[in-house]
Amino acid sequence: MAGMAAAGRGRVSMQEHMAIDVSPGPIRPIHLISDYFPHFYHFTEPTLRTPDPRPPVTPTIRSAPQPQPDPGPEGDSDDSTALGTLEFTLLFDVDNSTLHCTAHRAKGLKPSASGSVDTFVKANLLPGAIKASQLRTRTVRGTRGPIWEETLTYHGFTLQDARCKTLRLCVCEDPRLRRRRRAPPLGELRVPLRKLVPNRARSFDVCLERRRLTKRPKSLDTAARGMSLYEEEAETEVPGEERGRILLSLCYSSQRGGLLVGVLRCAHLAPMDTNGYSDPFVRLLLHPNVGKKSKYKTSVHKKTLNPEFNEEFFYAGPREELAQKTLLVSVWDHDLGTADDFIGGVQLSSQASGEQQQHWRECLGRSDCRLELWHPLDGAPLQLRD
């Protein structure tokens, strides 16, 4: 009975259990399951974390930081205004067949890695051979706002050129001053010349754009030649059959009794040498005619695609006799030690077509009247017509 009483006293009834003031004490963190089981990795050892008597601190949940792009230099962005602006004026003189481009100034040019800006303006007519139509201003040193006030003139520019050609202007850093080979332009822009009104000057203030790159044609076999897969878009322009043009003046002199032929200048000739230029000269032949008096040759101009000759030659004979003849004008590239390269030619006669025939007939139909006209050069060898 006493044992049962002791046992009864060891038991706690439900009523007594609910009446006990249980103080659980501080709440401790629950151990991780990994603390009780070893890690079967060769680089870790099983450890048992010691319970931290301090209350846990709930961590603040934060999103993972997103990678931020590396900001470029100040002002370097895709916005074309970051490259600066160019002020220039264009004038198409129809009477003299010339296109005048006056480069005034540039503003806010972005300096290169060297930190200095020594710039010039380079112009090209597209489509066409790059070297043939390339003109440039002088170099202005050490400023992001250069002032050139220089006019670049394209001779032999016709209405047909204005309809189909585009003027490309580039602001370039002088590689000779920076000791860099073919530095990329600081910026460029293109103006469709069909928007010009003849004999009316038009001023522009345009933002520069980045250089345009394009893939080379597959026919060039870039892998075999070791050339870059990409190049400037201007260099891929196909000149086609365009070989250049020549300005000729014809005048029948009644006092001297013969024909005066003036070779004034050539423009946009096709480059024939490896340096991208030619050493041009002009040959004249009046057919049929026997003897050296029917053949003439101008002087040679070195390393140019826009030579200015201003030389005049004389063919004696009555007007009726000259009307039955043919004048062959050919432009050549002079080479030392090898045969000269044919650049292009033009044939003037009463049997010719187009402006070649009109120019020939008008000069023989008038006396003492000098007629000047630009003629496109034909790349095919000249053949006499019966």
Give a written overview of the molecule.
The termini are far apart. The chain has 386 residues and is mainly beta. It is 11% helix and 32% strand. The strands form 5 sheets. It has a 4-stranded antiparallel β-sheet with strand order 5-2-1-8, with no helix packed on it. A 4-stranded antiparallel β-sheet has the order 4-3-6-7. It contains 7 helices and 18 strands.
Write the layout of secondary structure elements.
Blueprint: H1 2-10, H2 14-19, E1 85-93, E2 98-107, E3 119-126, E4 135-136, E5 147-155, H3 159-164, E6 166-173, H4 175-178, E7 187-192, E8 202-207, E9 213-215, H5 222-225, E10 230-232, E11 245-253, E12 258-267, E13 280-287, E14 295-297, E15 308-316, H6 319-322, E16 326-333, E17 341-348, H7 355-365, E18 371-376
Antiparallel strand pairs: 1-2, 1-8, 2-5, 3-4, 3-6, 6-7, 9-10, 11-12, 11-18, 12-15, 13-14, 13-16, 16-17
